[in-house]
Write a structure and sequence with these properties.
- The chain has helices at 3-11, 57-77, and strands at 23-27, 31-37, 87-97, 106-117, 120-128, 134-145.
- By secondary structure, the protein is α+β, with helices and mostly antiparallel strands.
- It has one domain: Hotdog Thioesterase (Thiol Ester Dehydrase, Chain A, Roll), CATH 3.10.129.
- The chain has a 6-stranded antiparallel beta sheet.
- α1 (3-11) crosses α2 (57-77).
């Protein structure tokens, strides 16, 4: 894991069991790419669904937001604010689920900046599974309060 990946993850306002970022693979002023493995023992699989566990759509959306908004926002603001005081809020989502994510699968989240102004970040986002099939695509926006 690179130093920038470690720094971004350490500054995320989440912790296990609600941290859905394992590593930031790439990041620059316009794009971010990260990954997360949905391990079989994660808490939500016990009841979603009985005898046929799948990753809830809200958790996939949260994974996309943690990498595409929160981690990306930390990178974009890293030289401008006190990251310990940063607060994040998702303001809108428009995503489409294309394929289920099963326990044990690793996903890659890619987000591309649509705009970042007045501390509001909007990205186009997609999640692909380990066989490079898209499982989610859409747009997410959020505000970063410093």
């Amino acid at each position: 894991m690179t130093d920038i990946s470690k720094e971004i993850i350490q500054n995320l306002p989440y912790q296990k069991p609600f941290l859905f970022v394992d590593e930031i693979l790439e990041v620059d002023e316009n794009n971010i790419k990260g990954q997360f493995e949905f391990k079989e023992d994660l808490w939500f699989y016990a009841g979603h669904f009985k005898n046929n566990p799948v990753t809830p759509g809200v958790i996939l959306t949260e994974c996309a937001a943690q990498i595409g908004l929160a981690a990306f926002g930390i990178f974009l603001l890293k030289n401008e604010s006190d990251l310990d005081q940063m607060k994040l809020a998702m303001t809108s989502t428009n995503v489409e689920f294309l394929k289920p994510v099963l326990p044990g699968e690793q996903v890659v989240v890619k987000a591309e900046k649509i705009y970042f102004r007045f501390n509001k970040l909007k990205v186009s986002v997609e999640i692909s599974d380990q066989s490079d099939q898209m499982v989610l695509k859409g747009e997410i926006a959020g505000v970063i309060l410093t």
